[in-house]
Design brief:
4 domains; Immunoglobulin-like; mainly beta; rod-shaped
Amino acid sequence: MCTVTILLGQPDAFKYVVTNTGGVVQGTPRFNAPMVSPDDWIGAFDPQGNCVGAAQLVNVADDVRFGVAASNFVLFGDDLTTSDIDEGMNINENFTLKLWDASRDAILVQVDSAGKPLTHSGWSSTNFTPINGYNDPYAIFNFLFNTDPVIVECSVTELNEDGSYEFRLGDFKYSDNDSISNDNMELIVMTGDNYTVNGSFLMPDGDYFGLIKASFQLDDGFSSSAVFNTDINILAVNDPPVIVKQDSTISVNEGSSIVIEPVFYTIVDIDSEAPFEIKILSLSGENYTFSGDTLFPGSSFFGELTVPIRPDDGQKEGLGPVFLSKVQVIEVNDPPQVTSVALAPSIISATDTLSLSYDVSDPEGSPDTTVYISSGNPGGDTDAFFFSRHFCVHILVQK
């Protein structure tokens, strides 16, 4: 059978259930160093936050103590006959101690020398005698006054689309009116709709703009604030276009040029529509040059060119990622040329035999050429020269 015990002056948070197992904890409490009042209460709590025992403090040996004389500070064990109810401590469970300050109606938490919350181990049922390790009425237990932090205001009201922002304590106006240092104050960014969280970073969902309701909490190492909700406006920013693919073969004859146009590609832009421009990443590359949007293959080059280009929607930050475009340069035959011609003798008479010499050059280096010679004599034999006062010689070279 379990009994809920409530004594005169006992705070509501210190109500506990009496069971048939338990052990006593003894000690001397301090309120941030000064002595406390015998009107105050001490309470013990299991990991689930259940009060497992409480007692009013008493004056003993010129100080205020607990677990001695009339301050019977028992930490009760769980009743094993009621498995569905957690009334008290179990073996290997830790417990925490709290102090109720009657003068302020405030609950204080126990801390270590660094001001951090303390938990205790080693509880056992000792048939309501002091527990080993907690049997010194003169052992000092220091407590600090704690109140929950309160977030008052968030100074961040706008963020850019597709960005991220790291929230800091300085972005908030808050209060935490207790005796605990705020050096350990931690900001918690909570998850919500239309954004994701990574630690203290908040990232709006991709391509989302408009209002989000962001949620935050503060934790001072002892307790957390209520959840603070605030509206943040996600500002739309331009999304640059992206070239998804090259739709057709782009070809140009050797020695010619071609204008690189947007119609050659599939271009996607989620917040803009055509027309788009094509920006050349470099005005010159391997085996080509550019003038504006016109490509000029290198001299005598044929084959495939790889040309880095970027789409542009004409807006701020509107230049899209690099796309490697392929351009086929088609080989075109370059005809051979006669580079020099000489006749001998240079001063001739009617009976002289003329000697014709010449050089042939082929830009592509082909040695396979055929030479055709004509005197320019209308109707004459192309293989013979006819003397006249004035004459000319025509030389035609073909592959």
